[in-house]
Amino acid sequence: MRLKIIAGNWKMNKTNAEAVELTRVLVDLVGDREHPRVVICPPFTALSEVARTLTGSKIHLGAQNVYSEESGAFTGEISPAMLLTSGVSYVILGHSERREYFAESDQMVNAKVKMALQAGLLPIVCVGERLKEREAGLTEVVVGEQIDGSLAGLTEEQIAKTVIAYEPVWAIGTGKTATPEMAQDVHAFIRNRLKSRHGAVADEVTIQYGGSMKPDNASGLLSQPDIDGGLIGGASLKAEQFAKIVDSV
Ligand code: 13P
Question: Residue 241 contacts by C-beta under 8 Å, 6 or more apart in sequence?
Fold first, then answer.
């Protein structure tokens, strides 16, 4: 059985007080849940306070980015050690918003993935095609390149620790979701690609779906054989909705 993971990507939302409040409600609703694994990813500024609020619960803490160097003159960046000492265990890397607005390439994502793994963080690596690419029949080309580039040079052991999130860009924050069948097709493609590049360990890799996942569409998506969880944006900011998605696994 592959590990199922429901993760909330809070993006650039929540002041510290708001983050703590949301976390308190989540601890009440799903704080004792081990299956699926629950991860919340607040902004950097709220990590330490959220970590304190999570004490004693089973919810894991994630960050939304990390830099690919250990320390030094990199104004505005955050190192893996800074995250680890703030109570973080997961880190989202290569989200389409970082690729789009901050020009992150597969090469940069790859450097961050390697640095995160070396430091002991578990990466959630995001891939996904834009609408134009899907319409041009390029989904597998684009996603295949992102998988190859972002995970280049990882050992089998490192691949086993890596989570993939398939997030079709056209489904993020738009209310448009891939149908369960469309998502399953790409998830199966990703698993086969991982198999061809990294071997049988691909069967152990958790592949999440992300893009307008909500309580009413979650169970259809999560019942597909290669969909092992979700990376939730908008609905993760509402405790009851997020908890319902956790419950639908
Ligand atoms: P939405 O759930 O708001 O579409 O966001 C998905 C996402 O980008 C999660 O990383």
Answer: 214, 215, 235
Q: Rg (Cα) of the chain, in Å, rounded? A: 17
pLDDT tens, 218-241?
999 999 999 999 999 999 999 999
Pocket test for ligand 1, best of 231, 237, 244, 245 (most atoms within 8 A of CB): 231
Question: Taking the domains of the chain in order of start, what are their residue ranges?
Answer: 5-248
Tell me the C-alpha distance between 181 and 210, whole Å: 14
Nearest CA among 155, 185, 172, 170 for reference residue 235:
172
From 39, 167, 170, 208, mutation site for ligand 1 pocket: most ligand atoms within 8 A of C-beta: 167
Q: Is-above-0.85 flag for pTM?
A: yes
CATH number, domain 5-248: 3.20.20.70
